[in-house]
Design brief:
Oligomer: single chain
Order of helices and strands: EHHEHEHEHEHEHEHHEHHHEEEEEEHHE
Shape: globular
Number of helices: 14
Strand content: 15-25%
Low-confidence stretches: 358-362
Number of strands: 15
C-alpha cells in the first residue's frame, strides 16, 4: 500500500519528512500542502507534482476539503500544533506531529484524546527513539547486560551557533511566541530517558537554568545592532556574517540558509542579513529562553537521572550519554555511532557498531532517525499496526509532563514531588 500525505507547514521540518517520498516513492506520496509562502508552494509542486487544487494557503483552508489523504504531517510552529492536529484527526487523518506536541499540557492531552476518540494513529516526532544508538542502548538494557540502572547522565550540546540561529535570532527565541527551550529543544531527550528507564515511574523532579549570556547587558559598547554594520564583527564568535555567509561560501545551499531565504543566493542572503531577524546582534534581540538548564529526575526504584541542555558547545546536537548499572556501564557519543559497554565481572570492554542499522541507510537528519521515524509511521499507517510507532500519545504525554514539571521546578525554585501534586502547565 502506498501511503498518501498532506503536509501542514512546508518549512524545514515539513520538507525533511516529505523528502522521504523522494527516496521511497513506492511507499509514500505527497498529495497536498498547506503553506502560505508561495516560494515553498512552488517548491513542493515541483518536487512532488501536487495538483494545483491541493495547494492551500492555510491549514484552515485545507480542512474545509473532504479527506483526500491517509495522513497529515503537522509541522507548523509550536503554538500552531493543537488546532490543525485536532481538526485533521477529526476528519480521519492519521497524524504525524512534530515535537513538541503543543505548548501547554492541557493542549497535549486534548490532541491525544481526540486521536484516541477518532481511532486514528498519532506519532509524535521524538525521533531520538529511532536512532540506532538509542535502539542499541535499549536492547542492551532490556536484556540485562548492565543489570539494574542506578543512574543516567545525558547531555544535549546544542552548538554555539545553532543556539543563536534558532533560540536567539530565530523562531524559538521567545517563550511568548513559542515556549520554553527545554520543551522546544530537549523534550525528545527527556523522552529518550523515559524510553531507557522502561516502565519505571518518575517520582520527583528538580531543575535549574537561566538565560545567562545572550542578554542586552552583555553587549559590547562598540557593537552595532546588526552584524553587517558592526565594527567589531570580526572578533565576535556569534557573527551572523560568519555563520551564514561563511556557510554560503563553503557551498551550503540548505539549512540554515533556507531559513533566511527560500532561494539561496548572495543577494537574498545579504538582504536577509541587512533587514531580517537573522542579521541582528545576539545581544540586541527579543529572546528570553534559557541558554542552559539542568534537570534531575528521581525514579520509584531509587534510580536517578541528570540531564544537561547547553548552548555553548562545539558539537551540534550530538548527544552523549552514560548509563551506570549494577553489572556494568554503557556510554555513547551519538556522532560516533558506537555504544561502549564495560562489564564489571569480566573487566572487558565491548564496542557495538550502530552504523549497520538498515533503517538509517537513506540518511536524513538526526543521524538517520528522521527517516527511521517516518518509515515506522508509514508502516503503521499502511498496516494499521500501531506497534511500529515508538512515540505514540501515551509515551509522548509522559515526557511532555516531565518537561512541564521541570520548568515548574525551575521557576518556583523547589523540588516537585510527582507523587503528591499534579502538573498542568507553566
Amino acid at each position: 500500500m502506498k501511503v498518501t500525505a498532506l503536509i501542514i507547514g512546508g518549512g524545514s521540518r515539513g520538507s525533511a519528512y516529505a523528502s522521504y517520498a523522494l527516496q521511497r516513492p513506492e511507499l509514500f506520496q505527497i498529495v497536498g500542502l498547506a503553506e502560505p509562502q508561495k516560494v515553498l508552494q512552488e517548491k513542493f509542486k515541483k518536487f512532488y507534482t501536487i495538483l494545483d487544487d491541493r495547494i492551500y494557503n492555510s491549514w484552515t483552508e485545507a480542512s474545509k476539503s473532504e479527506k483526500f489523504a491517509d495522513c497529515a504531517l503537522i509541522t507548523t510552529q509550536d503554538q500552531l500544533h493543537k488546532e490543525p492536529a485536532i481538526a485533521f484527526a477529526r476528519k480521519g487523518y492519521h497524524i504525524l506531529l512534530e515535537k513538541p506536541m503543543a505548548v501547554t499540557y492541557e493542549d497535549c492531552k486534548a490532541i491525544a484524546e481526540v486521536c484516541k476518540e477518532m481511532g486514528v494513529l498519532l506519532a509524535v516526532c521524538h525521533v531520538l527513539r529511532y536512532a540506532p544508538e538509542a535502539l542499541k542502548l535499549k536492547e542492551l538494557i532490556d536484556n540485562g547486560t548492565i543489570g539494574d540502572i542506578v543512574s543516567i547522565q545525558h547531555m544535549e550540546p546544542i552548538g554555539f551557533w545553532h543556539f543563536t540561529h534558532s533560540y536567539v535570532r530565530g523562531n524559538w527565541r521567545n517563550k511568548d511566541t513559542s515556549s520554553f527551550s527545554l520543551l522546544t529543544k530537549s523534550c525528545h531527550d527527556i523522552d529518550l530517558i523515559l524510553m531507557l528507564m522502561g516502565n519505571k515511574k518518575c517520582t520527583a523532579v528538580s531543575s535549574f537554568g537561566s538565560l545567562k549570556h545572550f542578554r542586552k547587558e552583555n553587549k559590547p559598547k562598540e557593537a552595532a545592532s546588526r552584524c553587517l554594520d558592526c565594527s567589531i564583527e570580526e572578533r565576535c564568535q556569534f557573527s551572523a556574517k560568519k555563520i551564514y555567509l561563511g556557510a554560503f561560501f563553503k557551498g551550503c545551499q540548505g539549512w540554515p540558509l533556507t531559513v533566511l531565504t527560500p532561494e539561496v543566493d548572495i543577494e537574498n542572503l545579504g538582504e536577509a542579513l541587512k533587514t531580517g531577524p537573522y542579521g541582528r546582534c545576539v545581544y540586541d534581540c527579543d529572546n528570553n529562553v534559557n541558554d542552559n538548564q539542568v534537570v534531575n529526575l528521581q525514579f520509584e526504584d531509587g534510580a536517578t537521572v541528570s540531564f544537561i541542555m547547553i548552548a555553548f558547545t562545539e558539537k551540534l546536537c550530538d548527544r552523549n550519554i552514560k548509563i551506570f548499572g549494577t553489572k556494568g556501564e554503557l556510554s555513547c557519543e551519538f556522532d560516533e555511532r558506537v555504544v561502549h559497554h564495560y562489564d564489571f565481572l569480566t573487566r572487558q570492554k565491548v564496542k557495538h557498531d550502530c552504523r549497520l542499522n538498515l533503517k538509517t541507510t537513506l540518511g536524513g537528519g538526526h543521524g538517520g532517525a528522521d527517516f527511521a521515524a517516518i518509515d515506522c509511521f508509514i508502516k503503521a499507517v499502511a498496516t494499521g499496526d500501531a506497534s511500529h510507532i515508538l512515540t505514540g500519545p501515551d509515551e509522548s504525554l509522559a515526557s511532555h509532563y516531565l518537561c512541564f514539571a521541570a520548568e515548574k521546578s525551575r521557576l518556583e525554585k523547589r523540588v516537585i514531588d510527582l507523587t503528591k501534586e499534579e502538573i498542568t502547565s507553566v
